[in-house]
Amino acid sequence: MPDRVAASRTARPVAERRARSRLTQLVSAQGLMRGTLQVRQRACGKPNCKCARGELHESLYLIVSEQGRSRQLFVPKDWEARVREWVENHRAAREFMEEISRIYWDKVRQRKA
Ligand SMILES: [Zn+2]
């Protein structure tokens, strides 16, 4: 694919268009959520539960830090798939932003808008 040749000048607009269009698609049509997912294991305390024999319960939490403060939210099982998707969409959108940003870095460096 010619747009893989990111180093050449002619390919740059193609790379930029692709990154922009993927970013636009994500931002305009998909759920987005910044955060980290964390699986935690715990014992519930009931003496006859499987967790008392070492099979711990697993719960999913979403961790989001805002202005240096960390917030967390329990994610119910039936919400896991969509929350994972939203978190992944945010990560991907950020990656496309970074890609575009690198292209503009080069513009400044090469004095070529
Ligand atoms: Zn238990």
Walk me through what this model shows:
The protein has 113 residues and is of the alpha+beta class. The protein is 42% helix and 21% strand. The chain has a 3-stranded antiparallel sheet, with helices on one face. A hairpin with a 2-residue loop joins strand 2 and strand 3. Helix 1 runs antiparallel to helix 2. It is elongated. The chain starts with 11 loop residues before the first helix and ends with a helix. The mean pLDDT is 89. The structure holds zinc ion (ZN).
List the helices and strands and how they pair.
Blueprint: H1 12-29, E1 36-42, E2 57-66, E3 69-75, H2 80-109
Antiparallel strand pairs: 1-2, 2-3
The structure holds zinc ion.
**Rg, Cα atoms, Å:** 21 Å
Helix and strand element order: HEEEH
Helicity, in percent? 40-55%
Shape call: elongated
Q: Which ligands, by name, code or SMILES, are bound?
A: zinc ion
Distance between the termini: 24 Å
Number of helical elements: 2
Strand order of the largest sheet: 1-2-3
β-strand amount: 15-25%
Roughly what is the average pLDDT, rounded to an integer? 89
Q: Based on helices, strands and strand pairing, what is the structural class?
A: alpha+beta
pLDDT < 50 stretches: none
Number of strands: 3
Largest sheet: 3 strands, antiparallel
